[in-house]
Design goal:
10 strands; elongated
Length: 329
């Protein structure tokens, strides 16, 4: 048996009790291997140099995409580093200078919050990286407590970098709404629109944005884009929001909005509907929908003020969300 193997075995014997108290499973000798689990993350550590204790750590999680790569900028070629080829930016200058980020921009922006960036900074500087669906690398551990800390950090990062696809749009909506850095907000919106092309919009979050102080910017822009992709989503929005969206959406969405306004009897929409019905360059389908909506509204008038039905402008939600709490960060 070689000297390094004896040293690794000595470490295993000396650290077994402390590692066990921390919940880590120590494998049989003479090799020094450790396994640990944190929720769905599985972490393995193997002693590769006993005299100067160095461990190869690998953490996996079923939700960590295989195409995500995070490593130090200095670890890639000079040309790629200079040009920033394919690099996703978080607009955290210190982190972006340190890390190369490869993968889906929307997913990376969604998972790389401030705490995750801080922990990744420690991991990258110590020699860990993210690639092929795992957090991996070699770290020096001169004490059992240090090894425990790195094993837990690797498992925590694998968990933080795992996000179900359904949660990505929700997270991007909140990032775009709360971002102070304009470039980060723009990047989150661009990534969000890509995700919304294939997925059903998260209307509850869009409605919250429409009720907030940014209603005329982020909320309306996002709602207009979502309706352009999913015109049937008109049933999810309020009458006054639908009216505000009419000049921002394409013809199919305008027709869907007109139909919805007629269905809910939104009398405050009559001026906008008349404008649609009489617009010279408007498409026939939109004009027909606007005319039908006006007939519905006027035909069902029960109480009138000045000849127009009085309808709550907040009517029209298929799902009430007034009391829905925001998700935790």
């Amino acid at each position: 048996m070689g000297g390094s193997e004896r040293t690794a075995d000595d470490l295993r014997r000396a650290w077994r009790t402390e590692l066990g108290r921390a919940g880590l499973q120590v494998g049989p000798g003479p090799a020094f291997t450790i396994t640990h689990s944190i929720r769905l993350a599985r972490i393995e550590a193997r002693c590769v140099a006993g005299a100067d204790p160095t461990f190869e750590i690998t953490a996996t999680h079923p939700g960590l995409p295989a195409d995500v790569r995070i490593r130090r900028e200095v670890d890639r070629g000079l040309l790629a580093r200079t040009l920033g080829l394919g690099d996703v930016r978080t607009f955290d200058v210190a982190f972006d200078d340190l890390a190369e980020l490869q993968g889906d921009p929307g997913f990376l922006l969604a998972v790389l919050g401030p705490t995750t960036r801080e922990r990744l900074t420690d991991a990258l500087n110590a020699g860990l990286r993210v690639e092929a669906g795992q957090v991996t690398g070699q770290v020096r551990c001169d004490r059992a407590a240090v090894l425990v800390a790195w094993v837990r950090l690797a498992g925590d990062l694998a968990t933080r970098l795992s996000l179900h696809a359904d949660r990505v749009p929700v997270t991007l909506i909140r990032l775009a709404d709360r971002a102070v850095e304009p470039r980060l907000q723009a990047a989150a919106l661009a990534a969000l629109k890509t995700w919304l092309m294939a997925d059903t919009p998260h209307w509850a979050d869009i409605r919250r944005l429409l009720r907030g102080p940014r209603r005329t910017t982020l909320g309306l822009d996002l709602a207009a884009y979502a309706l352009g992709r999913h015109p049937a989503g008109a049933v999810e929005l309020r009458a006054d929001d639908l009216i505000a969206l009419l000049p921002r959406v394409d013809a199919p969405a305008r027709a869907a909005i007109a139909t919805r306004l007629g269905t809910i009897g939104a009398a405050n929409a009559l001026p906008a509907l008349r404008q649609l019905a009489n617009a010279f360059f408007e498409r026939g389908a939109v004009k027909a929908a606007a005319q039908a909506a006006m007939e519905q509204i006027l035909g069902r008038t029960d109480a009138t003020v000045g000849g127009l039905a009085v309808v709550d402008p907040h009517a029209g939600l298929s799902l009430a969300d007034e009391d829905l709490p925001d998700d935790e960060e």
